[in-house]
Amino acid sequence: MLEWLKRHVWKACDRPKRFQGSNPCLSAITGAGRKVCLSYFKAMKKILFLIALSAALFSSCKKTTSISVTEAIVTVKGTSDCTLQLDDQTVLVPQNISGNPFGRNIRAHIYYNDLGATEPNGQSSSYRKVKVLQLDTIITKKTVPNLGPNENDKVYGTAPVGFYDSWMTVVEDGYVTLHFTGLWGYSGISHTVNLVSLGYPDAGSPANTLAFEFRHNYNGDSPSVSGRLVSKVVAFDISSELASIVGASDYYIVIKYTFLNGVSRTLKFHYEPGTSANLSEGGDDDSLAEATGLN
Question: Do 198 and 101 sit in the same domain of this protein?
Answer without folding.
Answer: no
